[in-house]
């Protein structure tokens, strides 16, 4: 299927979005796959106003009925899993299994949200006053703005949208300018679901094509009650204060610098497999990619030998070929960033293997690389920085407290893991004095989260939580209600205010 057929199958009206502004290229060969019109800031503001109008109607629809729309969206995603997954592969360069896996994640969050639509519970709280009842109720919040990164071009939208829709909100999405076609496809599938649903208000879910100016319009608009922004820490630094300046809410999902600790008791075979998937999967372009390996000195030689063998066998190539494990980097900027980091690592005492460009003859306009293993003498400056490419820095440790210190002494706090069969180490890792990340795993790697848990991280990762658990609460406003069913008017804290009339 070529790109036009793929878009057609997914219901995208390519002609309606065509224009001179944005050239979309596939990282597979660097070839142009579309030419799109961008939205202006004025159009973005109009879309947000329309979404607010939709919100005013949608918030009145019972939550279980709102869930029905998400159920229909899930049906569309099931029916189009392979096509949408393939589009993700073509536009973002992921291997087919990961493209389809990303769509499966969308289906899973839809299922979760449908169940949630019947479980938006509040609390009843004991009142200190006689004849009173207190409770907590949850209400729709407003317009949810979504800014997303290129590397999860569809799942991040669905994590936000499935929850926002059942919570009674409207959504305006600005996808990455590197992956707008996948966004147009999601919107087309959403519109099919809307048609089957029947009576949803106009403007409930919209997509804005464009770069950071459109993201800034979302950040600045007073009607965007929550801005959920996924991308680099640099982006979060710009967006967070803008939203805060108007007292809006933001949910930030930013960069990671994820480590795996491998202890002497670890199952090294399992550890090597977990590290390989984490470090070279998606060509190192996941927020949860494994970027640091902290290995006990006694097992370092054995583990590194296994990793070198696994790296040598990881097939690099066109992500649409079934045997490929490592696809291309997104673009030349990513390649240059990787090479600069490797130069810096060498200058800081690192021993680099791999990292060179591959397949340049076959794909002169694309950026394939051999994943790099870099043995570092210490956690130097370059190791503390997120380079969005397949570089794994390896450091050795002598005692577990030292390993934890290394793990935590970076500015980011997204994902972390330990491979150990020592119960004390495993529990310590997950305790208050253990990993300081939002995700702390035992005997599995750092990447590949399930939707049932809350996803996100601490420190420069931004503190946001999306997806499962009680992350839905970010998409609603909470009201505390106190009801007096007595004939008296006692004040809280026993305060006497003047005489009784
Ligand atoms: P990026 O920061 O370059 O862009 C992300 C999005 O932000 C894009 O849509 C972009 O147009 C927009 N943007 C950029 N600057 C902006 C500004 N000043 N105002 C408003 N919008 C702006 O990131 P990327 O290269 O697309 O993605 C890679 C980064 O995203 C990595 O750092 C990765 O760790 C991070 N990421 C984090 C998570 C997470 O859940 N924590 C998930 C995926 C990716």
The low-pLDDT segments are none
Portion in beta strands? 15-25%
* Head-to-tail CA distance between termini: 82 Å
Overall average pLDDT: 97
Description:
Keywords: NAD, Oxidoreductase. It comes from Pollutimonas bauzanensis. It is an enzyme of class 1 (oxidoreductase). 51% of the residues are buried. The protein has 2 domains: 272 residues, Aldehyde Dehydrogenase, Chain A, domain 1 (3-Layer(aba) Sandwich); 194 residues, Aldehyde Dehydrogenase, Chain A, domain 2. Helix 1 packs antiparallel against helix 5 and helix 4 crosses helix 8. The protein contains 15 helices and 23 strands. A 7-stranded mixed sheet has the order 12-15-16-11-10-18-19, sandwiched between helices. A 5-stranded parallel sheet has the order 7-6-5-8-9, sandwiched between helices. Strand 8, helix 10 and strand 9 form a beta-alpha-beta unit. The protein is an alpha/beta fold. The N and C termini lie far apart (82 Å). The mean pLDDT is 97. The site of nicotinamide-adenine-dinucleotide (NAD) has 29 residues, from helix 9 and helix 10.
How do the strands and helices of this protein lay out in sequence?
Elements: H1 3-9, H2 14-17, E1 18-25, E2 32-36, H3 41-58, H4 63-79, H5 81-92, H6 96-116, E3 124-125, E4 132-140, E5 143-147, H7 155-166, E6 170-174, H8 180-197, E7 205-207, H9 212-220, E8 224-230, H10 233-245, E9 249-253, E10 258-262, H11 268-280, E11 290-296, H12 297-313, H13 332-347, E12 351-353, E13 357-358, E14 368-369, E15 372-375, E16 391-397, H14 400-408, E17 412-413, E18 415-419, H15 423-430, E19 439-442, E20 454-455, E21 458-459, E22 466-467, E23 476-484
This protein binds nicotinamide-adenine-dinucleotide.
Nicotinamide-adenine-dinucleotide binds at residues 147-152, 174, 176-177, 211-212, 215-216, 219, 230-232, 235, 238-239, 253-256, 287, 386, 388, 414, 461.
């Amino acid at each position: 299927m070529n790109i036009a057929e793929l878009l057609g199958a997914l219901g995208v009206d390519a002609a309606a979005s065509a224009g001179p502004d944005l050239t979309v290229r596939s990282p597979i060969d660097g070839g142009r796959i579309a030419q799109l019109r961008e939205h202006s800031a004025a159009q973005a503001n109009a879309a947000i106003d329309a979404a607010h109008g939709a919100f005013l109607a949608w918030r009145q629809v019972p939550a279980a009925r709102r869930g029905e729309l998400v159920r229909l969206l899930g049906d569309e995603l099931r029916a189009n899993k392979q096509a949408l997954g393939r589009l993700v592969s073509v536009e973002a360069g992921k291997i087919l299994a990961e493209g389809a896996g990303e769509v499966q994640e969308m289906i899973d969050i839809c299922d979760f949200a449908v169940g949630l639509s019947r479980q938006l519970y509040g609390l009843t709280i004991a009142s200190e006053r006689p004849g009173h009842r207190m409770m907590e109720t949850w209400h729709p919040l407003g317009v949810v703005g979504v800014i997303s990164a290129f590397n999860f071009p569809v799942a991040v939208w669905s994590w936000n949208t499935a929850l926002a829709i059942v919570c009674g909100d409207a959504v305006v999405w600005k996808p990455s300018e590197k992956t707008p076609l996948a966004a147009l496809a999601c919107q087309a599938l959403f519109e099919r679901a809307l048609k089957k649903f029947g009576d949803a208000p106009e403007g409930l879910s919209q997509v804005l094509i464009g770069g950071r100016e459109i993201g800034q319009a979302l950040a600045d608009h007073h009607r965007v009650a929550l801005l959920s922004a996924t991308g680099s820490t640099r982006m979060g630094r710009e967006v967070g204060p803008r939203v805060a300046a108007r007292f809006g809410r933001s949910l930030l999902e930013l960069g990671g610098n994820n480590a795996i600790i491998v202890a002497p008791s670890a199952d090294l075979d399992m550890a090597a497999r977990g590290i390989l998937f984490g470090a070279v999967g998606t060509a190192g372009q996941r927020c949860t990619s494994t970027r640091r390996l902290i290995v006990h000195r006694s097992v370092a030689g054995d583990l590194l030998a296994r990793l070198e063998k696994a790296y040598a066998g990881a097939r690099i190539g066109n992500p649409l070929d079934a045997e490929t494990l490592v696809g291309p980097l997104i673009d030349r900027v990513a390649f240059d960033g990787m090479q600069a980091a490797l130069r810096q690592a060498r200058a800081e005492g690192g021993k680099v293997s791999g990292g060179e460009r591959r397949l340049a003859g076959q794909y002169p306009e694309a950026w394939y690389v051999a994943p790099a293993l870099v043995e570092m003498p210490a956690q130097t400056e370059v190791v503390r920085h997120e380079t969005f490419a397949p570089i794994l820095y390896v450091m050795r440790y002598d005692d577990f407290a030292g390993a934890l210190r290394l793990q935590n002494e970076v500015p980011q706090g997204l994902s972390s893991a330990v491979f150990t069969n020592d119960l004390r180490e495993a529990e310590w890792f997950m305790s208050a004095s253990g990993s300081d990340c939002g995700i702390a795993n035992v005997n599995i790697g750092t990447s590949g989260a399930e939707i049932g848990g809350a996803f996100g991280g601490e420190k420069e990762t931004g503190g946001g939580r999306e997806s499962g658990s009680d992350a839905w609460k970010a998409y609603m406003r909470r009201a505390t209600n106190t009801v007096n069913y007595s004939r008296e008017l006692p004040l809280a804290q026993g305060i006497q205010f003047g005489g009784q009339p």
